[in-house]
Specification:
about 140 residues; alpha+beta; OB fold (Dihydrolipoamide Acetyltransferase, E2P); 5-stranded antiparallel β-sheet; 3-stranded antiparallel β-sheet; LytTR_DNA-bd_dom; LytR/AlgR family response regulator transcription factor; LytR-like
Length: about 140
């Protein structure tokens, strides 16, 4: 399957501008005795570890929260965040490339992470990426006009 997806990664400035376009608000995360707001657009990916979720941010930092990946998925923007595998949710703003293979499709992110795409979710994942890129083209054409 030939994938004309992912032309080039977005710059940090582009990511912040697009975050406004996609209405990506801050995400409130629970910690011991308090809550903390985190900018949703700075999340590169989320990784499920049992009843915990490990956040990977654009600046390289990581944060673990005592909520399941499923609970976190419902709090994220569905236009930008997709779940290519049961253990990961990725932010399409940080998608670098898609690597189709006969055995296992995978994606690479701008932070160097490479994530497998489950075979059962591969076609849905491709549709989500194509929809996201159509949305980007629409936003870019409106910005130019």
């Amino acid at each position: 399957m030939k994938l004309p997806l992912v032309t080039r990664p977005l710059s940090r400035v582009n990511v912040e501008q697009l975050a406004d376009q996609f209405s990506m608000s801050d995400l409130t995360l629970p910690f011991w005795g308090y809550r903390k707001k985190m900018p949703m657009h700075r999340i590169v990916r989320l990784e499920g570890e049992g009843n915990y979720t490990l956040f990977h941010f654009a600046d390289g930092s990581q944060l673990i929260v005592s909520l399941t990946l499923k609970k976190m998925e419902s709090r994220l923007s569905p236009k930008v965040f997709v779940r290519p595998h049961k253990k990961n949710i990725i932010n399409l703003l940080y998608l670098e490339g898609i690597h189709p293979d006969r055995q296992q499709m995978s994606v690479s992110l701008v932070n160097g992470d490479r994530i497998d795409v489950s075979r059962r979710k591969a076609s849905l994942f491709i549709k989500q990426v194509q929809g996201f890129q159509q949305e980007l083209l629409t936003i870019n054409s409106l910005a130019v006009a």
